[in-house]
UniProtKB/TrEMBL annotation:
Pathway: Purine metabolism; guanine degradation; xanthine from guanine: step 1/1. Pfam families: Amidohydro_1 (PF01979). Its EC number is 3.5.4.3. Residues 66-431 form the Amidohydrolase-related domain. This is Guanine deaminase. Signal peptide: none annotated. GO terms for molecular function: guanine deaminase activity; zinc ion binding. InterPro entries: Amidohydro-rel, Guanine_deaminase, Metal-dep_hydrolase_composite, Metal_Hydrolase, Metallo-dep_hydrolases. Keywords: Hydrolase, Metal-binding, Zinc. SUPFAM superfamilies: Composite domain of metallo-dependent hydrolases (SSF51338), Metallo-dependent hydrolases (SSF51556). It comes from the Bacteria. Its cofactor is Zn(2+).
Length: 435
């Protein structure tokens, strides 16, 4: 066992106020071996209260630093790293002109492997220690990323993209083969070390009914496997789904009709929803991956935080690289704040803007995102029993951060200063539980 002495940020669990942070100015984080060689948090709290309970323990003292849970990115695309910043009129031309041509390259294992190496290094540089990411439709892209994540002992969830229609040659897959490949990849990778598999229909327009049905059957056969897709991101996309699935009540209900909504299902965007959709999210235990930099960049719209909280469904934050513009959770949290602020015309009424609390923003990218994945108490927090994936923040990292954080008079002010001014420079070190 060993310990770190520094300021410590974590999140309340049972008994504490929901989504609120616990902050120790002078804390001790004690970690040691848990199951399967993964390091876990043994104890955490004020230094003066805890240190006497661990006589002789090696303590690494990090004055002026803040330890915080590693960030959880609920949705992104590792093959789209080189697509970041490609402007388009909207989602559908962006897919056609930039994304599909780029994803074709991942048929080759060597291309996938070098992209996976860069991607994982970039996650770690930005303090992201758990990710739910799309691969491409090529099994090689999945094998490359799992292989690389395994080397780093990272908790990572990915899957082969299913897209057997409305997709160009080179990324379109075959219905039967795509389902056979998915099952083989589940058996090969799911639950191995810290890796998890996600059944990954790209979105309803790119999947035939037979493919969606097959995906739903696999989801029933492997209940602890994840499901990831996109829904209700863009108005043209929503209209297209209405044409393709005229019998469905809504875009979201297409997925429900095929057995693709349940715990461990995570849908990106969830913007153009009505209250029946929100209730369906809640009742099925499905989670939304809120992707604010992507939604602002592609002009998709604004996630309705008040609507989500009124219904009470799960959500967390996501970079959605490469529709999203940054790997940095600080940039994503700031964009989420802007999205909350926006007052939006909805159904002829003005939906007023909110000022999201910084503890709530941070929670959405850590403990809240972990809860959305069904991994509460496993990652995204630094409570006893959690896997010890954490980051070391240096609030002196830039002259402006140093000046502004020195003037913070409360935890909210400190967190807000880091959200607004922070980026990868704030993350001095990323520590993975197994290393
Ligand atoms: N919908 C279907 N595919 C994609 C994708 O790659 N990115 C985004 N943002 N939306 C999608
Ligand atoms: Zn996406």
């Amino acid at each position: 066992m060993h310990a770190y002495r520094a300021a410590i940020l974590r999140f309340a669990t049972d008994g504490g106020p929901h989504r609120s942070a616990v902050y120790e100015e002078d804390g001790l984080l004690v970690i040691g071996p848990g199951a399967n060689g993964v390091q876990v948090v043994h104890a955490v709290g004020p230094y003066r209260d805890l240190v006497g309970r661990f006589p002789g323990i090696a303590v690494e003292h990090l004055p002026g630093r803040i330890l915080a849970p590693g960030f959880v990115d609920l949705h992104l695309h590792y093959p789209q790293t080189d697509v970041i910043g490609s402007p388009a009129e909207g989602l559908l031309p962006w897919l056609e002109n930039y994304t599909f041509p780029e994803e074709k390259r991942f048929a080759a294992l060597d291309h996938s492997s070098q992209a996976a190496t860069f991607f994982i290094a970039e996650l770690l540089r930005n303090g992201v220690t758990t990710a739910l990411t799309f691969a491409t439709s090529h099994p090689a892209s999945v094998n490359a990323l799992f292989g690389e994540a395994q080397k780093h002992k990272l908790r990572l969830i990915t899957g082969k993209v299913l897209q057997d229609r409305h997709s160009p040659d080179g990324v379109r897959d075959d219905t039967e083969q795509s389902l056979t490949d998915t099952e083989a990849l589940i058996r090969q990778w799911h639950g191995k070390d810290r890796l998890g598999y996600a059944i990954t229909p790209r979105f309803a327009p790119s999947c035939s009914e037979a493919q969606l049905r097959g995906a739903g059957e696999l989801a029933a056969r492997y209940p602890d496997v994840w499901i990831q897709s996109h829904v209700a991101e863009n108005r043209d996309e929503v209209a297209w789904v209405r044409q393709l699935f005229p019998a469905a009540r809504s875009y979201l209900s297409v997925y429900d009709d095929f057995g693709l909504m349940r715990e461990r299902a995570v849908y990106a965007h969830c913007i153009h929803f009505d209250d029946a959709d929100r209730a369906l999210m809640r009742d099925t235990g499905t989670a939304a991956a809120v992707s604010p930099t992507s939604n602002l960049f592609l002009g998709s719209g604004f996630f309705d935080y008040a609507g989500a909280d009124r219904a009470g469904f799960r959500y967390g934050l996501a970079s959605d690289v490469g529709g999203g513009t940054s790997f940095s959770p600080f940039h994503t949290m700031l964009a989420a704040y802007y999205v909350g602020r926006a007052s939006v015309e909805q159904g002829g009424q003005l939906r007023p803007g909110l000022s999201l609390n910084p503890q709530h923003l941070w929670w959405q990218h850590t403990a809240g995102a972990a809860q959305a994945l069904g991994l509460a108490g496993v990652v995204g927090n630094l409570q006893p029993g959690c896997e010890a994936d954490f980051i070391v923040l240096n609030p002196q990292a830039t002259p402006l951060l140093a000046r502004r954080t020195a003037r913070a008079n409360s935890l909210d002010e400190l967190l807000f200063a880091m959200i607004v001014l922070g980026d990868d420079r704030l993350v001095e070190k990323t520590v993975i539980a197994a290393s």
